[in-house]
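Appendix B, Record 12. Input sequence as logged:
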Amino acid sequence: MSDHEPDFWEEMEQKVEEELELPPMFKVLLHNDDYTTMEFVVEILQQVFHKNAAEATRIMLLVHKTGFGVCGVFSEDIAETKVEIVRHLAKKSGFPLMCTMEEA
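Logged structural output:
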């Protein structure tokens, strides 16, 4: 082994770290409406976003008071999946709950 190997590996590690990029992240949002019950929103937050009762209630109240609330931040594929699950569950339950995503 050569004395130059540690320098080579350090240089390679640095190049790899510089080239690696984290995937873009997306916020999943719930939007307030006049028909979806607060209980249903809490249920969605617990089932789909794995929030405990206190956190789900806090987010639900934020949605109710400000018009929207962030449910979580995820990679694009996971965010898209969660949005579709919420839309499906809301439609199945007869609620117009709107769920969207935007780049974080």
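The beta strands are 25-31, 68-75, 98-103.
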